[in-house]
Design brief:
seven-stranded mixed beta sheet; alpha/beta
């Protein structure tokens, strides 16, 4: 109809009314060994758009399903609601619960072909920021780390000064940087299954780092212990003919001083966290770490 109208000025009447209504929020709470929480937030206010943000909903729900089936140290709270007003409402109704949130991640735009992009929390130096940076930098796939800026999605509300929660954002191409953004071209054809899968794996890896990160101390700090006689190399490798992960063992022993966490060591060694965590478990088993 608009395209049939001649080009001239028009008066437009918006037939609306202001009345009491409601806001619907979804929430999944998964208790862990501690009451400390990891928050995963996804906006639901774009029901006709695939990448923004059906893709975030799908990744979030798959994360919730997988985490629910596994042992966990942290408790997890998955939130679903309309952008901005939904997170503000949840924060207003649940301010006491926010005191338990230790890490947080906003998920959006998980399915386009752009590189994974992590937006740091407002302060930018929280464990979630370091975990996300490490996972993306060691993934072998193209990625970007960007600083916080006061525009975007619900990370703005969680990071607002009165709450100051350590919440970052994981996406692919940020909002407004792809021509399909907020158009009918953001349809199922625009979302690629392999991109969705890689986004899920990245988010899961970030949560795994937070779950497994610990600070350990060597029980044999004065010189390197003999590792070969303990058979540690083959145990770390997991196969008789696999290459021993000697370097991961030595990195841990070099920094297991009670002041460096496993994530600290993995970042310094530029080694995937999973390798460092696996080597640490073996060293613990043999009484070389506490």
């Amino acid at each position: 109809l608009l395209e049939t109208l001649p080009a001239q000025d028009y008066d437009v009447v918006i037939d609306s009314e202001l009345k009491n209504g409601s806001v619907t929020l979804g929430e999944i709470y998964l208790p862990g060994d501690t009451e400390d929480e990891i928050l995963i937030s996804t906006h639901t206010c774009h029901p006709s758009l695939a990448n923004d943000n059906l893709s975030g909903l799908i990744v979030s729900l798959h994360l919730a399903r997988e985490i629910a089936a596994a042992p966990r140290r942290y408790s997890y709270r998955f939130l679903y609601g309309p952008g901005t007003i939904g997170s503000i409402l949840w924060l207003a109704l649940n301010e006491e619960k926010t005191r338990r949130i230790r890490h947080g991640l906003v998920l959006t735009g998980m399915g386009d072909t752009g590189p994974l992009t992590y937006k740091r929390s407002r302060l930018g130096d929280k464990p979630i920021d370091r975990a996300a940076q490490h996972v993306l930098e060691t993934s072998g796939a193209p990625s970007r780390i960007i600083d916080y800026y006061p525009y975007g999605y619900d990370e703005r509300q969680f990071c607002s000064p009165g709450f100051d929660l350590p919440v970052g954002r994981l996406s692919r191409t940020p909002h407004g940087e792809f021509p399909e953004y907020h158009t009918s071209a953001d349809n199922p054809d625009f979302v690629k299954p392999e991109m969705m899968a890689a986004s899920f794996e990245a988010a899961r890896a970030i949560l795994d780092v937070l779950e497994q990160d610990r600070t350990l101390t060597s029980t044999n700090p004065k010189g390197e212990p003999r590792l070969g006689k303990r058979g540690l190399y083959r145990q770390v490798a997991g196969q008789a003919n696999a290459k021993p992960d000697e370097l991961a063992l030595l990195w841990i022993l070099a920094y297991a001083d009670g002041r460096h966490s496993l994530l600290d060591i993995a970042m310094r060694a530029r080694t995937p966290f999973a390798r460092i965590a696996a080597a640490a478990r073996v060293l613990e088993t043999h009484g070389l770490l506490r």
